[in-house]
Amino acid sequence: MALREIIRIDEDLCNGCGNCVTGCHEGALEVIGGKAKLVRESFCDGLGACIGTCPTGALTIEKRDANEFDEAAVAATMAAAAAPKPATHGGGCLGAAARTFGPAQGHGGGCPGSMQRQLQPTATEAPAGLVPSQLAQWPIQLHLVHPLAPQFQGGHLLVAADCTAFAFGAFHSEFLKGKALVIACPKLDDDEGYLEKLIDLFTDAKPASVTVARMEVPCCGGLVRLVTEARDRAESTLKIEEVIVGVEGGIVGHRMF
């Protein structure tokens, strides 16, 4: 044990949103019983990267006796988490729980693949059994898009979590048609630069509308947080539409804010 700085969680203020779980890259936090918990003292480095993700102010840093930060154990755990998993899951992120689904409903730098280009969405009927694409530009990964690209200027912007296109069979026809797309994963991506890129999209592209499509799992809420913070920092008054996709394929939530 050592006297050091470590995260403190006020459970009276915690709403169980799970944003802090996403913000803690070391895996020290989990949502248990609807509240965030510090489940591994030795995994908390005390730097407070998770604090800015909390919408209620439930997270603070305190100095107290605690197990010392174990950087080697954190690295080993992160490496194990990246390895292939068996089909069962006993805890951690709700989005990683193994599930069985019914029949598929459909799906959706210097690297040449990052070259900006506009595409022509399929306008005619596709052959039987094929779903026409509604993708209108490339690239689509948030790290790679350019806010000044023509498809974003005054257009309708769709910010989608990576998994939504696989979970929601009608992603192209219901979400993507007529929109410029950017995709991101708030849990697994290195999100450094994401906030700045989104601020630039609000400031420079001045979209006519913004829709955020995300999964129902708590860690996916971080994407909504990034988009709303970017809007506020850009001093935009644009309303944002949030669509929440269930892990079994349906739309389980919808709101404007």
How would you explain this protein's 3D organization?
By secondary structure, this protein is of the alpha/beta class. The chain has six helices and eleven strands. Helix 6 links the parallel strand 9 and strand 10. Helix 5 (194-205) packs across helix 6.
Beta-strand segment tally: 11
* String of helices and strands: EHEEEHEEEHHEHEHEE
Cα end-to-end separation = 45 Å
Low-confidence stretches: 87-91, 96-110
What sort of overall outline do the alpha carbons produce when their principal axes are compared? elongated
Provide the spatial order of strands within the biggest beta sheet: 8-7-9-10-11
The proportion of residues forming helix, as a percent range, comes to 10-25%
Arithmetic mean pLDDT: 83
Please tally the helical runs, counting DSSP H or I stretches of 4 or more residues. Answer: 6
Structural class: alpha/beta
Strand content: 15-25%
Largest β sheet strand count, sense and barrel closure: 5 strands, mixed
Based on CA atoms alone, the radius of gyration comes out at: 20 Å
